Amino acid sequence: MMNPKVEAAINKQIQKEEFSSRLYLAMAIWCEVKGYPGASAFLYRHADEERMHQMKFVHYVNERGGKAQLFDQEQPADEFNSLQELFEQVLDHEEYITASINKLYELTFDEKDFTTANFLQWFITEQLEEESLMRTILDKIRLVGTDKAGMFHIDKELETMSAGAANPA
Ligand code: FEO
To answer: Which of 7, 91, 125, 129 is an S-S bond match for 134, by CB 3.0 to 4.6 Å?
Structure first.
């Protein structure tokens, strides 16, 4: 039997991971129609990763004898003034998710649910990597500013990143 407080908190996290997937999907669509094919491919792929995070939590709750729950979702933002603004929002969102995972981790200690604490280690590492990746991308975008050639190169780079390693984020 799962600790009910931990189960409820993970179900909230399931909602957040699902929202992340929808947010990055909306962002990928924006990039695709605005002529950033590389950023778009990167974000489509990232949307899939968030879905994978969601499913990891779903299976965990069910395997522990709980029941994963789905909630309504807010409409994600789908209009942006620039690619820079979009990636600023990605980083903000990842920082929010990191804080949420950290709170969940704290709860598992309060509740002495060390099995879940152990399970969350993967997500803690994942958040560290995701934040660092998004910060790197944002730094590059900020560096080129409105330079079209520079932006073209960043977009190409994002395309390579999305086609690259099995788990770049
Ligand atoms: Fe599921 Fe990007 O954190």
So the answer is: 91
